[in-house]
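// run 5 | inverse folding | seed 20
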């Protein structure tokens, strides 16, 4: 269900003025008309119902009004914010994607799809098999472009998760990040589980073994075009990442990322 990510908070009257590229998105993509309803994610993360109270074609500005009451049943188009919130209420698992750096166009696709899946942290990993130019492109990548990709994906998917793409790291630093997140969980270390997708079927485990109980934090590591080196696999395994092998066709790295995330979420969501 779509949502609109607002770049500014409403004014004292509860109005939000939308212009520029956002105007084109609302007018040409969502095809909003006066009186339509739209779920808007505010800068503080709150999801609000709004109605389109004015469309100024000349100045290319759309004015949205925060709804005081959306239970009158008079809205026939759009999705109500409380519907999105209620469906997302059970999505309390914090997902991490450790993606070994692939070609820039593939990394953008992976980021977009991971956002749609509700991943909280995307960690680009400069692995042994990652091409040097791809790593450099990720390190010097345009932050504005990545933020735009995240915003577009959240608007399209309606994801309530504020996804973050962290700075590229080596494998050793990646496992340190994960272990730190796990150690910060003062309630129960067993609330977290991590898997690495491996093309070899050696000493691997099934997803049902890895996620035999309810989890609050889950990590998935996926290789680049050349995969993950045996030495890096060992580093991940020593840090608690369980190797998982999907029998069947050989997948491209961008396909493996979304396939792996979806498979993990299907198992995790059974609780």
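// decoded
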């Amino acid at each position: 269900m779509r949502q609109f990510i607002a770049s500014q908070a409403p004014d004292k009257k509860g109005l939000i003025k939308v212009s520029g590229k956002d105007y084109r998105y609302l007018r040409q993509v969502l095809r909003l008309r006066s009186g339509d309803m739209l779920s808007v994610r505010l800068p503080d993360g709150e999801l609000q119902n709004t109605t389109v109270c004015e469309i100024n074609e000349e100045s290319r500005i759309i004015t949205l009004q925060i709804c005081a009451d959306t239970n009158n049943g008079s809205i026939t188009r759009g999705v109500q914010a409380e519907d999105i919130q209620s469906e997302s209420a059970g999505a309390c698992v914090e997902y991490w994607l450790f993606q070994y750096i692939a070609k820039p166009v593939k990394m953008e696709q992976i980021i977009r799809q991971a956002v749609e899946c509700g991943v909280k942290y995307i960690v680009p990993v400069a692995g042994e098999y990652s091409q040097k130019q791809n790593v450099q492109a990720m390190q010097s990548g345009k932050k504005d472009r990545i933020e735009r990709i995240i915003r577009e994906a959240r608007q399209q998917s309606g994801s309530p998760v504020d996804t973050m793409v962290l700075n590229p790291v080596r494998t050793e630093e990646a496992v340190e990040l994960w272990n730190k997140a796990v150690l910060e969980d003062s309630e129960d270390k067993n609330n977290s589980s991590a898997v690495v997708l491996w093309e070899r079927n050696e000493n691997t485990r099934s997803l049902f073994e890895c996620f035999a109980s309810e989890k609050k934090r889950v990590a998935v590591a996926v290789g680049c075009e050349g995969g993950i080196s045996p030495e890096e696999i060992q580093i991940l395994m020593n840090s608690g990442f369980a190797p998982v092998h999907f029998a069947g066709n050989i997948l491209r790295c961008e396909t493996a990322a979304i396939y792996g995330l979806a498979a993990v979420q299907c198992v995790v969501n059974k609780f």
